[in-house]
Amino acid sequence: MNSAVPVIAIDGPSGSGKGAIAHRLAKKLGYHILDSGALYRLIGLAARRQEVAFADEAGLARLARGMEIEFVPTDDEEEPIRVMLGGEDVTVAIRTDEAGIDASRVAPIALVREAIKDLQRDFRQPPGLVADGRDMGTVVFVDADLKIYLTASVEARAERRHKQLIGKDISVSLHDLFLSIQERDERDMNRPVAPLKPAEDAVIIDSTSLDIDEVLNQVLALVAERIG
Ligand code: C5P
User: Fold this and answer.
1) Mutate to test the pocket of ligand 1, among 18, 40, 161, 184 (most ligand atoms within 8 A of CB)
2) I want to staple 150 with a disulfide (CB 3.0 to 4.6 A). Which of 12, 115, 137, 217 is the partner?
3) Is the CB of residue 102 below 6 angstroms from any atom belonging to ligand 1?
4) What structural domains does the chain harbor?
5) Which pTM value belongs to this model?
6) What pLDDT band is residue 165 in, cutting at 50, 70 and 90?
7) pLDDT tens string 177-208
8) Opening angle at CA 71, ends 44 and 90, nearest 5
9) First vs last Cα of the chain: how many Å apart?
10) Nearest CA among 103, 206, 105 for reference residue 157
């Protein structure tokens, strides 16, 4: 880890718009990006494929350490990175709602979180990093230069996710999404290890009635103030 390299941590619940903001911000600043949620999704997917039980904590941690992953940047705004697992493009497979639920089942396991801590910190490379997740500001990059906690109402988040998935030809009902987001919030916020919560020094942005450009402008103003 290179603590001289600036980090912008963006945490928040699913569907808050973190991913979109993180990608636009990284592009604008020329920074690297860490989509930490994709790592938990990959562990869930690899576990299903290799038939490692979700109860087998040591097995999951081993799996997490051994994953051969690659994030390949694209010019596509809708799909800014392609995610590779063992040479296979699994971008679509990890974005389903089921993969999100699987991710939130492996994510509470301390051994699993520990197994990917260094991997996440290795993303901190010049000229800077935008890190998106649930514990970027509270655990992985406690010394981040700027910590944002991005949130929105469950209704707004379900509607956004619905639009996103429909755009990717993944069909799912709005009501089911609402329930699964609620379930995921519940699990992410109430787990004993690295629960989702704003860091004490985070700036909280509620995007319920803001569009992506409005959020991005607020974040850019904070970057100019804190990082220059
Ligand atoms: O952000 P995304 O929806 O892809 O994350 C999927 C799941 O991975 C989350 O619901 C959460 O349980 C877990 N996660 C986490 N810590 C992170 C990022 C994601 O626990 N830093």
Assistant:
1) 40
2) 12
3) no
4) 1-31+128-222 (3.40.50.300), 34-126 (3.40.50.300)
5) 0.93
6) confident
7) 999 899 889 988 999 999 999 999 999 999 99
8) 45
9) 22
10) 206
